[in-house]
């Protein structure tokens, strides 16, 4: 089954909208995991649930005070769902994975089209194997370390999507041996917040097309951390992003800029650099006046900050799609996943499955969602 993401609706203030997905027909098993306390879900080990999963199964991972052991997903397509970046219901705990490895080998089956929602990835993730893995989605995750794709020679990665995530001191890297032999196509990085402390965020994007970086916020200490690794990143389209105190835009090659905003960067007009393209609408060295502007300037690590432009911000209503530059916050009651998974950094307050479901069976599922900045 091709998994369809939950259509979560944001709320205003203290008002909470509950969605009840009544007896949805499913074509795969939904498995529940909780490692503390033991016994409230059929599985206490996420790896055991993955091992038992058939191709296309969904695994719901409860937020607890205990970190889950390492997970290896090998040669099967699964959907992992946690409680979100910053849960605010009766259980405010995230689902922390000590490590996540995705492997594709010559065995039957493949992890292509796997999805990962609402997880805390304390060690990032690692994609490996003797066969290339295509079409992965990471949505509404809290990513605290490096995300590494380890390809073979002359591989072409297609369809990697990152939406609505919060990255802190992490990187996204498509390593290549020998260098410059990997292509990354249809790479979508949409509506994320990236806190940069050291290193480079995008690394080893040598060849490829349709690399769209849109509606994101990148913030760092005073122009000390580059977004691109020098000499390895080219052919990006950057549009509708906010860059706060970033540096070394010249590390990118043949980058197109459209409707971006820079503030206090080492080069506040990177679209004028040699080899880059200015497609218009870019704003140079202007404060975006975010709700948590002072905390963003100080590089505070907190996914629940208010990243929304406030009244008087130059980012309001001037993006290429007629919205705000930077992270999107849709108006109630628009669904977070409308228009291509452009969520609003929502969190899941509570997920309450009311049983198990085998292929062809049904399951009632109650979901409560809220707006991350409230």
Describe the structure.
By secondary structure, this protein is mainly β. The protein has one domain (63-349). The chain contains 3 helices and 34 strands. It has helices spanning 46-52, 293-297, 338-341; strands spanning 17-25, 30-33, 58-61, 71-74, 79-81, 96-97, 100-104, 115-117, 120-121, 125-129, 137-139, 142-143, 147-149, 156-158, 161-163, 166-168, 172-174, 183-185, 187-190, 193-195, 202-203, 211-214, 217-219, 225-226, 233-234, 237-239, 242-244, 246-247, 252-253, 256-258, 261-263, 277-278, 347-353, 362-370. The strands form 7 sheets. Strands 2-3-5-8-11-15-19-22-26-30-32 form an 11-stranded parallel sheet, covered by helices on one side. The longest helix has 7 residues, at 46-52. The protein is globular, with a radius of gyration of 20 Å. The chain starts with 16 loop residues before the first strand and ends with a strand.
How is the secondary structure organized here?
Elements (H helix, E strand, L loop, with lengths): L16 E9 L4 E4 L12 H7 L5 E4 L9 E4 L4 E3 L14 E2 L2 E5 L10 E3 L2 E2 L3 E5 L7 E3 L2 E2 L3 E3 L6 E3 L2 E3 L2 E3 L3 E3 L8 E3 L1 E4 L2 E3 L6 E2 L7 E4 L2 E3 L5 E2 L6 E2 L2 E3 L2 E3 L1 E2 L4 E2 L2 E3 L2 E3 L13 E2 L14 H5 L40 H4 L5 E7 L8 E9 L4
Parallel strand pairs: 2-3, 3-5, 4-7, 5-8, 6-9, 7-10, 8-11, 9-12, 10-13, 11-15, 12-16, 13-17, 14-18, 15-19, 16-20, 17-21, 19-22, 20-23, 22-26, 23-27, 24-28, 25-29, 26-30, 27-31, 30-32
Antiparallel strand pairs: 1-34, 33-34
**C-alpha geometry:** globular
How are the strands of the largest sheet arranged?
Answer: 2-3-5-8-11-15-19-22-26-30-32
Portion of residues in helices?
A: under 10%
Tell me the quaternary state. single chain
The count of helical stretches stands at 3
Low-pLDDT ranges: 1-26, 331-349, 369-374
Content-based structural category: mainly beta
Q: What is the number of strand segments?
A: 34
Total count of domains: 1
Mean pLDDT over the full residue set: 82
Distance N terminus to C terminus?
34 Å
Strand content: 25-35%
Radius of gyration: 20 Å
What does the largest sheet look like? Answer: 11 strands, parallel
């Amino acid at each position: 089954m091709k998994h369809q993401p939950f259509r979560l609706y944001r709320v205003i203030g203290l008002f909470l909208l509950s969605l009840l997905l009544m007896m949805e027909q499913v074509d795969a098993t939904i498995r529940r995991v909780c490692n503390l306390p033991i016994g409230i879900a059929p599985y206490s080990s996420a790896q055991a649930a993955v091992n038992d999963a058939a191709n296309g199964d969904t695994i719901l991972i409860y937020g607890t005070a205990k970190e889950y052991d390492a997970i290896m997903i090998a040669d099967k397509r699964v959907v992992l769902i946690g409680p979100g970046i910053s849960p605010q219901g009766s259980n405010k705990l995230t689902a922390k994975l000590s490590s996540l490895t995705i492997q594709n080998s010559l065995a039957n089956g493949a992890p292509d089209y796997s999805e990962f929602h609402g997880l805390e990835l304390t060690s990032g993730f690692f994609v490996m194997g003797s066969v290339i893995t295509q079409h992965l989605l990471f949505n509404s995750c809290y990513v605290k370390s490096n995300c590494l794709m380890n390809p073979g020679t002359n591989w072409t990665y297609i369809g990697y999507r990152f939406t609505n995530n919060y990255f802190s001191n992490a990187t996204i890297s498509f390593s290549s041996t020998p260098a410059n032999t990997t292509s990354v196509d249809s790479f979508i990085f949409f509506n994320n917040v990236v806190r940069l402390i050291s290193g480079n965020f995008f690394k080893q994007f040598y060849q490829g097309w349709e690399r769209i970086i849109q509606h994101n916020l990148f913030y760092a200490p005073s122009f000390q951390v580059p977004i691109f690794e020098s000499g390895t990143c080219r052919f990006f389209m950057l549009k509708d992003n906010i860059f706060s105190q970033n540096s070394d835009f010249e590390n990118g090659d043949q980058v197109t800029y459209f409707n971006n905003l820079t503030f206090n960067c080492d080069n506040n007009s990177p679209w004028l650099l040699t080899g880059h393209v200015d497609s218009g609408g870019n704003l140079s060295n202007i404060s975006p006046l975010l709700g948590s502007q002072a905390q963003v300037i100080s590089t505070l690590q907190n996914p629940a900050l208010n990243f929304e432009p406030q009244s008087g911000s130059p980012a309001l209503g001037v993006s290429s799609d007629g919205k705000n530059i930077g992270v999107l916050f849709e108006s109630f009651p628009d669904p977070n996943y409308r228009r291509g998974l452009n969520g609003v950094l929502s969190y899941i307050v509570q997920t309450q499955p009311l049983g198990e479901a085998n292929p062809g069976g049904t399951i009632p599922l109650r979901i409560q969602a809220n707006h991350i900045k409230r």
